[in-house]
Write a structure and sequence with these properties.
Elements: H1 9-14, E1 22-25, E2 29-33, E3 41-47, H2 54-60, H3 63-80, E4 90-93, E5 109-113
Antiparallel strand pairs: 1-2, 2-3, 3-5, 4-5
The protein binds guanosine-5'-monophosphate.
Length: 124
């Protein structure tokens, strides 16, 4: 696992050094609009703790942080109107490392919706 870079852009957002458009904040989790949205709904969900990737978070975060993050996603999809009770669905994506083409090395979940998002990946 690469060392966590405390100067990555999301760490700076968490420290309040860079503004963000917050959608939801809980004790351990922040959700905010992506700066370059790829869909009508494009929100990033991040843990407040320092984790590089989903596997880093899943392996190393305390249970309370994982529970908080997971429940925050459920609240968020409802509040964004993309959950399956009120809306028409969404895609959740997380990119990790070079092959995942991860730009920001702080674990984040993309929630994309508001239109049909298309096929999961382009066939190679
Ligand atoms: P990744 O490729 O790492 O999965 O996605 C990083 C995402 O972060 C991209 O969708 C990009 O548009 C978004 N992003 C990069 N810098 C900023 C920023 O300063 N603010 C916000 N809100 N999003 C950002």
């Amino acid at each position: 696992m690469p060392a966590y870079d405390p100067n990555n852009i999301f760490a700076r957002i968490l420290r309040g050094e860079i503004p963000n458009r917050t959608v939801l904040e809980t004790e351990h989790t922040l959700a905010f609009h992506d700066i370059m949205p790829k869909a009508p709904v494009h929100v990033l969900v991040i843990p407040k703790g320092a984790y590089v990737s989903y596997d880093d978070f899943a392996a190393n975060a305390p249970d309370a942080e994982i529970l908080d993050f997971t429940r925050a996603v459920a609240r968020l999809t409802r509040e964004l109107g993309v959950d399956l009770d009120n809306g028409q669905g969404y895609r959740a994506i997380t990119n990790a490392g070079e092959h995942g083409v991860q730009e920001v090395p702080h674990f984040h979940l993309h929630i994309l919706g508001g239109r049909n998002i298309g096929r999961m990946i382009d066939p190679a």
